[in-house]
Amino acid sequence: MRYGLKEWAEGYVTITVRGKRFERFLNMVVREGLRVWNIRRVGAETCRCDILIADYFRLRPFLRETGCRSHVEQREGLPFWMVRLRRRSGLGIGAVLFFVGLYMLSSFVWTVEVTGTKQMSPQKVLQAAEQIGIKEGAWKVKLKEPLLLRKELMTLLPEASWIGVTIQGTKVTLNVVEKDDPVKPIVLGPRHLVAKKRAVIHTILPEAGRSQVKVNQFVEKGQVLVSGIIGSEERQRAVAARGTVKGEVWYTSDASVPLKQTQYRLTGEKLGQQYLIVGPYAVQVWPWNKQSFALYESKEARFMPSYAGYTSPVGWKQVEQSEVVESQVELSTEEAVAYAKRFAREDILRKAGKDAVIREEKVLHATTENGKVYVSIHFSVIEDIAVEQPIVGIPQSPEPDSTP
Amino acid sequence: MRRWSRRLRHLAGGVLDLPQDVVLEVPRITMIGHLQMYIENHRGVLHFSEKELRLLLTNGQLIVSGEQLVIRAILPEEVLLEGRIGGVKFV
C-alpha cells in the first residue's frame, strides 16, 4: 500500500492543517486520489500529515472549501536534497572529483617489483622492463597484455628461463626464474685414505683405489687404508681414493657426579607485566604494584612499531614471569653411575662423530669420595676412521691408453 | 426491489460460497495484535483524534478507540491505522 522509496524519490512535505472540518477535508482529498499518510492529531483543531510535493499543489481548492489552512513543517526527499546539494555544490563536485581522481590514479603503475633474481641484478630486469613500457608512472591502458609483455621481456633477457608478469592494481610484479647452470662435478686430486685414529678395522668398502688393510686388522694413526695408487709396478696411476672404512676405537672416559643435586622446577604460577617503553626507559603500566616471585624465569616480548626502517621510540613490552622452585635431591650410587654413564656416552659420541655407534661399554671402577661418585668407563665405538691425504711427490703417470 | 436484491445476494453467498465481505457491503478488518488495524470497505472518515477514529460504513458506523492513533495510509476505501488500539465498536 505504501512505497517508501518512491515517496522519497518524488519528495514529500510534512504539513499541519488547521481547521474545524479536517475530516471532511481528508475525505475529499482521498476521494480525489491524492496520497496522504502519517495522519495524526496534534491539537484540538490541527492535524499533521505527509503529502507528496505534486499533490501538495493540488490541495488549495479543498482547503478553501473546508476553510482549513496548511503550513509546511518539513521537506524531505530527493528533490529537496538536490536543492541542498546545489546550494553546496562544492561538496558534490568534490565527491565526483574524488572518484575521478581515484580512478585516474589507479590506472597508473606505481610500483614495479622484481622477485626471484639470484645472479641477475634486479636493475637489469627493471631496465629491460622499461624498454617495453613497464615503469613507474606508466599508463596501464597503454601496456600490452601480460602474456605479450612476458614474451618481449624474455627476448630481452635471455638469461632468464621464465618471466612472470602480473599486474595487480597499481603494482607490477616481475617474477624471474633464472636458468640454472648444471652442477659441475668437483674434480678431486689424487689421494689416499688414511686412518685418523688407532683402531681395529670393522668394515672396509673401497669405491676407488686399492684397499691396504683387512677386517680385524689393527691400524695405527696415519696408516694408509685405501691407496690412491693403482696399477702394477710398471704402469701406475694415482687416483682419488674413495670409500668408507669403519673401525673399532677404544675410549676411556672419566666422569664425576655429585650425590647432592639441586633441581629447579616450574610451578606453573605465572605473572604478566606490561611496560610502556619510551626511548630508553620502560615504565611498568600493569600491574600497579611491583610483585614478583622469589625465583623465576622471565620471558619478554617487545612490540615497537616500525615502518620503512624507522622504529618508533614508543613501544610496548610484555614480561611473563614463571615461578621456579628449588629442591635438593639426594642420588643413590647406582643413580649417580647411570647419570655419569649418560654424560660419558654423550661426550664420546660427540668425539667420535655423528654416525658412530657404541658397541660396548663397561664401568671400570666407581668410587664414592667427598660426596661425589667418580666413574671410569670404557667404550668401544664403531666409527668412520678414514681421512683423505693428498698424494704429493709422486709424479702423475700418463694416462694408461697413451702409453705404448 | 431492494429486498429482492438483498435476498439474491444472500443466495449467491450461500450457493457460490463467496466471502461475506465481497457479497455484502460490510467492512473487512484485519488486526495485528493491538498495534495495527487494516480496514477495507469504509465510506469515509467522520472523526479522527488521538483517542478515536470514527468511520462511516454502508450501514452504520465503526468506532475504533485507543491511544496515540495514527493513520499510516488512507485510500478511498481502505485505512491503515496504527497505535494502541483499545476497542472496536459497530454502531
Automatic annotation (TrEMBL), chain A:
Transmembrane segments annotated in the record for this chain: 91-112
Swiss-Prot/TrEMBL keywords: Membrane, Transmembrane, Transmembrane helix
A Pfam family annotated for this UniProt entry: YqfD
Highest rank taxon of the organism: Bacteria
InterPro entries: YqfD
Name this protein carries in UniProt: Sporulation protein YqfD
Species whose genome carries this gene: Brevibacillus panacihumi
The organism's taxonomic lineage, starting at the top: Bacteria, Bacillati, Bacillota, Bacilli, Bacillales
From TrEMBL, chain B:
InterPro entries: Spore_YabP/YqfC, Spore_YqfC, YabP_sf
Superkingdom field: Bacteria
Segments crossing the lipid bilayer: none
Stated name of the protein: Sporulation protein YqfC
Organism per entry: Brevibacillus panacihumi W25
